[in-house]
Amino acid sequence: MSDLLSWEPPNTDRQGSTYVGEFDFDRLNKQQRRVYTVCASGCWLTLGEIQAATGDPEASISARLRDLRNMFGLSVDRRRRGDPGSGLFEYRVSNGG
What we know:
97 residues; alpha+beta
């Protein structure tokens, strides 16, 4: 887990029809670092708990978790929390091993 704590997501442009680098580059890269820092701690956290720690909206957090997986090749673990029928999931970033 210590490797994860010493790594930091690099600044990068995103893809998508709504992405405008002039407006979105700094905002999304800062958001990426906040989400990564919270999730790389090794603790299992729901989107709501990550939101409480970062101040970012849950939809944005979900997108940044996908970016960690798809853009940076990190393992983003997901599991159900509580009643399986509730649809509540928790996440963490791991070494994937």
